Amino acid sequence: MGVSALATGITGLKTSQTALSIIGDNLANLNTAGFKSSRVNFSDELTQVLRSAQAPTSGVGGKNPLQIGTGARVASIDVNNAQGSLEPTGRPFDLAIQGEGFFVLTDGTTDFYTRVGAFNLDQNNDLVDSATGFKVKGVSATINIPVNTVVPANATTLVDLVGNLDSGMSTGAVNQVVTTTSAYQVAGPAPATQGTSLDNVLANTTNYVTGDTISVTGDETNGTDVSATFTYGSGAANDGTTLGDLRDFISASYGSSTATISSGNIVLTSDAPGVSKLNVSLSDGASQTGATTFSSSSIAITGSGDTYVTTVPLFDAQGKSYPVTLTFSKASTDTWNVVATMKPADGSVTSLGITAINFNTDGSFASVTGTKALTITLPGTAGTQVVNFDFGLANVFNGITQLSGSSSVAAISNDGFEAGFFLSASVNTDGTIEALFTNGQTQTLERIQLATFANPAGLTKN
């Protein structure tokens, strides 16, 4: 066997060795986040020509060339850039890219690109790559999470009202109604219903266990105190586990009033005429597992017709909340009046510019007679605070309506809030990072930068 034959055979061993190395690398990185498998392609080496091809002549046929291959070589090693599977980790800054693109990292001088989104915060609260410490780049700058930030309080200037005023309500006998400050919701957000578990209400902060209690306190329309305890759990010894069970318990606790659920609100209704002191308050028992952020409201007025009452919390510049009660009464077929009141300890209503709320014959909102401004005077302040109400667009059904069915008007948006401390940060599907604060406010911090390449396989691994 000649030396050339040995050399040719060795090229085959070398290429096979490369192929085995690629296979081994793929196997070794089965659990490596962001790893893309590779494949090797072979081609034959330069061929040695012993005799060139000869064309046929009139008397002799043609001859094919005599060629000897000199072995095999690695033609290319290709990276498979197909989308990998995604797995949840439970860590807020473990990110993955759905589709094409690379996260952009920087050491302050050079940019690096990776599909691995295992990030965390360093001592300066900068978002960095866990393996290298390189900072993660956003669209405009590197990303810093302001964990020590406080959002200052903001005084209420605008409140959006949405819901229905029952077209069937009369202008005769009093029908006193009290509703919770805000609607209870489930994920979506959709309004909670009677079948919604108390643990599934968004206001629930800790799931209840059997034996946990909810205190129901308040006043009947005649001022009689109401005090009862709802016990969470199934079976005869307990009162139930759903919002509907709690509603039924409230109804049973109030002798001359009935509790219902309307658009997620717990609504307490009484037909007693004259001055009404009806109110209800819910609170969790002390030293227990379950907890929910309950809202409450109260009103004391003399009605001359059907009324619907809702309470709106208004915030001053220091973030203190002052409840303002709005009482809607039907004046005529398509016209309603509204009165704003406050408890003396909370302040006073200086003026309300709304003299009438007008609806179209189809039940859509038409207009407001007067202005939509409410002026209040708060205790301890020298001046007044002006709040505007938004009832929705005219001639469409995106705000308040007058349709057949339960009344459910409530505030869905309030630009006032108390001061809030940083609570957490989350990353949206478009890469936008938002900070959430204890007062429910959010701030957009930055958007994670993605880099795309026409030929990502052309990148050199570091």
From TrEMBL:
InterPro entries, per the entry: Falgellar_hook_FlgE_sf (IPR037058), Flag_bb_rod_N (IPR001444), Flagellar_basal_body_rod_CS (IPR019776), Flagellar_FlgE/F/G (IPR020013), FlgE/F/G-like (IPR037925), FlgE_D2 (IPR011491), LlgE_F_G-like_D1 (IPR053967)
Give the Flagellar hook protein FlgE/F/G-like D1 domain ranges.
Answer: 96-149
Keyword line: Bacterial flagellum
The chain positions of domain Flagellar basal body rod protein N-terminal read 7-36
Q: Where is the Flagellar hook protein FlgE D2 domain?
A: 307-417
Provide GO CC annotations from the record. Answer: bacterial-type flagellum basal body; bacterial-type flagellum hook; cytosol
Matching entries from Pfam families are given as: Flg_bb_rod (PF00460), FlgE_D2 (PF07559), LlgE_F_G_D1 (PF22692)
Example of a GO biological process term: bacterial-type flagellum-dependent swarming motility
Which cellular compartments is it found in?
A: Bacterial flagellum basal body
Q: What is the official name of this protein in its record?
A: Flagellar hook protein FlgE
